[in-house]
# Entry
Amino acid sequence: MRILLSLGLALTVCACGSGGGGSGASGPIVPFLPATFTPATVVLGQGSFTGAVPNAGGLDGGTLSGPTAAIEAGGSVWVADALNHRVLRYAGLPSVNGAGASSALGQPDLFSGSAATSATTMNQPVGLVAAGGRLYVSDFGNHRVLIFSGLPANTGVAASAALGQGDLSSNIAGSNQARLTNPVGIDAGGGRFVLADAGNHRVMVWNSLPTVNGQPADLVLGQAAFGDSTVNAGGAASASSLSNPFGVWTDGVRLVVADKGNNRILVWTTFPTTNGQAADLVLGQPSFSAVAPGGGASGARQPSGVTSNGVQLVVADGDNHRVLVWNTFPTASAQGADVVLGQSTFLNTAPNDDDQDLFQDATPSARTLNGGGGFLFAGLAGKRLWVGDFRNNRVLRLDAP
# Structure
């Protein structure tokens, strides 16, 4: 049975995330070493850290509704503003709360937010990656990934091609080698391109960066063949199955997948080369067959986003309303995280709980998160972590010393 998803709160079911291997960063690795419960430095989409209303009461270039992925590329910050059906570009590094975007993709201006299907429009964009001189956007509601030539600086620029569709005006869901159903997280590394095809419970791999409409994938994970699309490949959870994968990260050598429906993170320590290849490690669960949601330093509840700088691993643990940080890349299954953000201890799991009394507060703060339904996303850029805090309608920038 295929489970269809939706990001819209008034629509069907749920969830998302994106990696960061191809965000455009280069040079030596800069470690991200925050303290537990570190407060954010800057908030986008709201005028203060206590705001959480969609579009802060009025849609413009400084507001957000259901933001997901955020990356740095080409000297700008890019945010997938999912429920406004657009991608915002902030020129330079935003340094004040509620900063206004410079331009938007998916809309004709900074004051529009309707969904559509064309080369210049989107329907719930959720994932972002910049690679090979192009910007890639996973367009969840249109069952496609848009490819933009270069990093567009102007509003309303048209995409040049789309994965998952044969042209830029179609939005047909499917599960073959060239079709997608509700794609979410995307990433690129080492010349490879990976995509979490959530509605088909699989991860698609292109061994070179795709550039043309409908380019077929080279490899599928989570299913034995490209035409398969059932939860956990029609059986129980295993090292080779997936359930609503949301986040992906790769450096071209390793691959990490946030397997949201199975409450776990799968790690391939060497890049897979065959369809349905089993993962090497599992995080968030004690074994590959376990799927129960959990907490603590080694549990997970609907993890939705993963990112890494190649040395550390960061996981957005959505329904625990927190971000987990492994200070060294995990080498064993069930290995516990070293640092937690969004909570003061690994045992706290309530949303927007600044006083840490285990109950949700009336408003968010600079230290809290609300990833209800598994809607929480994270992207690393040197000593900065960008968190798409979907339910609070904001993006947080956390800086580590």
Observations:
- The first strand starts at residue 42 and ends at 44.
- The mean pLDDT is 94.
- The two ends are 47 Å apart (CA to CA).
- The chain has one domain: 42-399.
